[in-house]
Amino acid sequence: MKIAIIGGGAAGFFLGAQLASPFLDVHIFEKASTPLQKVKISGGGRCNVTNACFDPNILVDFYPRGNKELKSVFGRFQPGDTMGWFADRGVPLKIQEDMRVFPVSDNSADIVECLIKENQKNNVHIHLNEAVKRVIQSGHEFEIITSKDLYLFDKVVFASGASKQAWQMIEKLGHRIIEPVPSLFTFNCKDSRIKDLPGTTFPHAEVKVKDHALENSGSLLITHWGFSGPAVLVLSAWGARALADLKYKFTIQINFIGYHIDTALDALNELKKKNQNQKVGKYAHFDLTKRFWTSVLNDVKIDPEANWQEVSAKKLMHLATALTQAEFDIHGKSTFKDEFVTAGGVDLKEIDFKTMESKLIPNLYFAGEILNIDAVTGGFNFQACWSEGFIIAEVLKNT
Ligand SMILES: Cc1cc2nc3c(=O)[nH]c(=O)nc-3n(C[C@H](O)[C@H](O)[C@H](O)COP(=O)(O)OP(=O)(O)OC[C@H]3O[C@@H](n4cnc5c(N)ncnc54)[C@H](O)[C@@H]3O)c2cc1C
Predict the structure, then answer these.
(1) d(CA 383, CA 105)
(2) What gap in Å lies between CA 330 and CA 322, rounded to an integer?
(3) Closest alpha carbon to 180 in 118, 276, 244
(4) Phi, psi dihedrals of residue 347, rounded to the nearest 5°
(5) E strand segments, 197-257
(6) In sequence order, what are the beta bridge partners of 369?
(7) Measured distance CA(298)–CA(276) in Å, rounded
(8) Which of these, 350, 5, 367, lies nearest to 174 by C-alpha position?
(9) How far is the CA of 22 from the centre of ligand 1 (A)?
(10) What is the mean pLDDT of residues 311-340?
(11) Candidate from 27, 41, 42, 340 with most ligand 1 atoms within 8 A of CB, to mutate
């Protein structure tokens, strides 16, 4: 049986690595001169292979798109299986405190080499510098026209990542493509209140997009360009489509301390009562940095040199509001450490997730970022590639 895998990335190579059978003639087509380029640069060169979340029911919560469909997929191959798979092939992985999983060597090249070696062991033909230009269904076979030749295959797997050209080919085959938009980005904001505060973090912040049901809590970071940190990145993933519709212009409301405004006001009144003769700016409160505390006092026009007893009830209310309901206008987005994924792709309704096969065209399969599946950062995007590749391999080996 002749199998074409279009795309030599994480999904394509993980699939090929498992197709050990003398009855299968497997070909990977990769348009670039080197395969697995994204794996190589991933995780800052360390490759965040997966995440130590071993319960599929919890794991799916990290996928803004694909969470329903991936439950059964992860039921068959999940992060624990990924860790075992690489360890069995001489690449042990380690779990960091934040649950992200990396090679013990902290070197993505080990993952790349392992995947290449396993494909070579299976006699997979790796066609580099060979872009697939057209896929035509012809009876029970597929004609594949590449930049170099024309081939016939029994089965075709699209593992071509976020590729406009591939989506156009798939559309021509009759599938619906959900319009791709970026996911995982930081918010650009020019505001005098944060101008001098890059590097300031807020471990328990809450970020809401005003007038939209989009909010997230977690750690927030002020950068030179605006706001970043998990609170923003996760929000950008869940709101990828809504924020694209807003053309990345919207207002956010930030709770820097994670307290309800009434609780914050009570705490400020308590501080006033207890520290009547102390300067308001002497110590920062609510685990905030001194720099931020001084800045927020200045914003609400409370003199840091004033004593607590001099601060009026109205000023305290302003301070509570600035700490818990501060509004900032966002104008645009930036990528996070060059790490971005695409929301959108092949419509999940048209895929049978028991096999990853097209419901419209028999013998056509999909894996990886080509699908309308994406996750927040933390190794989840690769995990989807490994699990989907595993399922297709099981199907093809047993055909
Ligand atoms: C900088 C960066 C860092 C990242 N770090 C992490 C991380 O640490 N952990 C994590 O989980 N996720 C990470 N991600 C996301 C992750 O890289 C992707 O989710 C993943 O690579 C998708 O794999 P894929 O195989 O679907 O697509 P890709 O890895 O993009 O591979 C698709 C391949 O198909 C080829 N191709 C496309 N069209 C054609 C064609 N017509 N003919 C032939 N070949 C074609 C492309 O050249 C490419 O090599 C990162 C992303 C970026 C950009």
Answers:
(1) 19
(2) 17
(3) 244
(4) -60, 125
(5) 201-209, 214-222, 226-228, 249-255
(6) none
(7) 19
(8) 350
(9) 29
(10) 93
(11) 42
pLDDT by residue (tens digit) across 7-17?
Answer: 999 999 999 99
- Residue 229 · residue 201 · CB < 8 Å: yes
Two structure tokens written together for 370: 């080509």
DSSP-based three-state secondary structure for 136? strand
342 lines ligand 1 (CB under 6 A): no
CB atoms within 10 A of CB 192: 9
Q: Which two tokens stand for residue 310?
A: 């001099």
* C-alpha to C-alpha distance for 208 and 226, rounded to whole angstroms: 15
**Rg of the chain's alpha carbons, rounded to an integer?**
25
The ligand 1 atom at the shortest distance from the C-alpha of residue 35 is: 49
Give the side-chain half-sphere CA count within 13 A for 68: 5
Q: CB within 8 A of 9, min separation 6: which ones?
A: 30, 35, 36, 37, 38, 39, 159, 160, 161, 368, 369, 385
Residue 66 CB less than 6 A away from ligand 1: no
- Our answer on whether the CB atom of 341 is closer than 6 Å to any ligand 1 atom is yes
Q: Residue 337 above 80 pLDDT? A: no
Closest CA to 371 of 341, 337, 335: 341
Q: Are 200 and 289 in contact, with CB atoms under 8 Å apart?
A: yes
| pLDDT tens digits for range 349-386 | 999 999 999 999 999 999 999 999 999 999 999 999 99
Model confidence pTM above 0.85: yes
* Pocket perturbation via mutation, ligand 1, pick of 38, 338, 382 by most ligand atoms within 8 A of CB: 38
* Integer Cα distance of 198 and 218 in angstroms: 18
